[in-house]
């Protein structure tokens, strides 16, 4: 069927935008860059028989560390019909350049590599929303990793946000990557549930962030 | 006060983890007191109406967010026959109680409770508003998402006063944005927050609903403002304060004053409208 124009306040469009932003945050985010949606400019939806629902979006994103600079993106998010176990397909095209994070990435990399004891921290942010400056890159890295979890686990009827980094433990590696084992709490906006996830992230200044494993922590409260 | 004049009711902190709301409530109470005798609108409002502001509307939950679990949402009621504690106080009101968007599972964050008004926190407000008999507006403050919402949540059909509420909401979010540029969207709880009736599906019997129809996941049965509206309180609004997800419930305390400051003109718009449109 033909594509239907959606108003920007349309909640399913906002959810699709969150998937696209999560995907992009994972691909392009890191300890020195956190990408956030500034505005959903335009949204269209197309229902494709026997395939699923495709959302075509125009987004304006900002870097939380450099709010004056924004980039425009176009994204397509395809939710597969009836399939609860398959992640939506996402394609994103970024127009323009994101500010370089080379210097900050190098500085973070060397700082962590030269720690005598492996970094351990919890409750980022704390109850009052505070993040100590030296943990801000860790927060942003967890945010990038939660972008992956959001992308992989979203449906048309869910919207996931990182609520808090419950725990982080650095694991020293013999290769060049940094490794962080996180327990993150994700807030799902439709059900209002808080979902704990364990996620292992590898990061390197040239290779960016990669989630090497993640799984939802077993139910029970 | 004391003479049963028309009144405006505000509550914050009904969901205990939404800490920006209790803080905004405290700031707002102080602002109202400060501006009486200085600001013409506040003075006019308080010269003929009363404002009731309940700040820690869910005290047990709030205490629990300090002592044990910062992300606790519900009350702390014991649920008979369940290990799980607590009822969602914003699904416990007698308006579409038990409907879509609420859960019958005590372990769920949107558990509606064993029956409407089972929670004493809710019952206290119901009893107060009913006994008062002259409350003209209920403004229930939550976070996060940056939205200004009005009834209905439990049904898709627009409320009778939809047009007027929508225009007032539009003005309020515009005046909010004028302070620091913070963008809010507005609309009824259930619908897709747009002015596009063609996208709102007609009410169709559940068994005929095509499988692709938008699920009523945005709908919510048993909410505060739906109850208020159905009980004669025309100007019933829910605010969802900052932010849009970066910090969510753990909004930095440095944002308390900016949030309260920008929200104030929106609240004032609503209160002035209530004053100028007696019913």
Automatic annotation (TrEMBL), chain A:
CC per GO annotation: extracellular space
Organism in which the protein naturally occurs: Chloropsis hardwickii
Protein name, entry field: LXN protein
Keywords carried by this UniProt record: Protease inhibitor, Repeat
InterPro entries noted in UniProt: CYSTATIN_LXN, Cystatin_sf, Latexin
Origin: domain of life: Eukaryota
Coiled coil (residue ranges): none
Family: Belongs to the protease inhibitor I47 (latexin) family.
Domain named Cystatin LXN-type: residues: 2-103, 120-221
GO molecular function terms noted in the UniProt entry: metalloendopeptidase inhibitor activity
TrEMBL record, chain B:
Molecular function as annotated in GO: metallocarboxypeptidase activity; zinc ion binding
InterPro entries linked: CARBOXYPEPT_ZN_2 (IPR057247), Peptidase_M14 (IPR000834)
Keyword Nucleotide-binding set for record: no
Active-site residues annotated for this sequence: 240 (proton donor/acceptor)
Keywords: Carboxypeptidase, Hydrolase, Metal-binding, Metalloprotease, Protease, Signal, Zinc
BP-aspect Gene Ontology terms: proteolysis
Pfam families: Peptidase_M14 (PF00246)
Segments forming domain Peptidase M14: 1-274
Gene3D superfamilies: Zn peptidases (3.40.630.10)
GO CC list: extracellular space
Required cofactor names: Zn(2+)
Entry similarity comment: Belongs to the peptidase M14 family.
UniProt name for this protein: CBPA1 Carboxypeptidase
